[in-house]
Design a protein that fits this description.
single chain, mainly beta, three-stranded mixed beta sheet
Amino acid sequence: MGTAYPPALAGLVVGGWRLDEPGRAPAALPAPGVEIARSSSSWYDSLEVRPGGGAWAGFDGALASLTGTAPAGVRRGRSTFMLQNGSHALEDYALTLARGDSIKDAGVDVSSGTLGAESGFESLGRHLWAARARVTRGRQSLAGSFSQRGEAARLEDDEEEAASGQSGTLAWSYRGRDLLWRLGYERGWDRHESFGGPLLASTREAQETRVAGEAICSQGGRELAARVEWTDAKVERTGDDAFDRRAGSVWAAVRGTAPLAGGRLELAVGLGRHDAAKRVEAVPSATFRLRSSGTNLTASVERMVTPVWSDVPAGADPFLQRAWVASIRAAAADTQGWRARGSVRAGRVYARALAEPLPLEDLWLRAGLRPDLGPYDFALAEGGLVRDARFAEAGVEGFGLARRGIALPVGAVRAARTD
């Protein structure tokens, strides 16, 4: 449990992380969602960091995506329970129950936690409950999910926040001999309120609807895929700092994968228009993956575009954060139990979104996101080494970040886009 400052990666508070939870309702729909009330990591068998999606992800691309992998389904039910107790009146628990096989499965999730006075907080609490189900009949599969979450927090100076949200999905797929069809519907709503202390009361309500369709053809080790997505979102704030904004988008992408030099090369390109950008944007991406003798290598280069349109300072215009990013990641393991990994991500960002470092979600949303005046360069390196013995495991890991912003003279204005 902690504060609700937007999670950043390499200095990016927008387009840094993306959380993918297959089978579960999206936590950040509409963005940023209820940040404190997220799924417990204990519900997953493992968490994998992947490239952020490139052209396939469209306006939701990120520097990296965190994907949770649930334990394999079994006919008997399974459950995972997590309990934490600590200083400052910390009480936190999470429970998941699931039952399923290759034909059908279902599950429920419940979590709740409270924290007393600590680090400027007077009190903090959160909860989440969710349900999901999937059924397969012949070549067709139907899946659905729903979640409800909420949180409340109070600072020592009497500033308070209360937030709640709901999201749900419905997905259908049909698998032919060489062709897979997918159709998905997602909808989310959330409400943030902030008040108390020096704050005038303000309420933010947001909602978003998404519809997406995919077609994937696989044959002879090669794959060709196409995707189309439509979104419609609305954000309204009443009380202090009032506004009412609405924006929609359309995105189309194609992706091809084929064997190359002992590995696999993936090329993709996407085209889309967002009402905030008011123009068509093109996003290319390329990824090469190689597996050989216990070593996995992944190299990628991509362009990312992220609209920032709803929560901007009063009188400011929406803007488009744009970036070019390259990355390389390697992981290796041997038969003696040694595992090593390392990665480097580097890029240049234009109109980087900046947020005020405030501890409550609605406070930095009220302050608004603003664009950095100059380009922002970064390089993020991380790595780790693990020794897995029969009865114990030990390891070491670390990271380093180099970054550079270009300071503009006083009174200077941002130049036209150069990417």
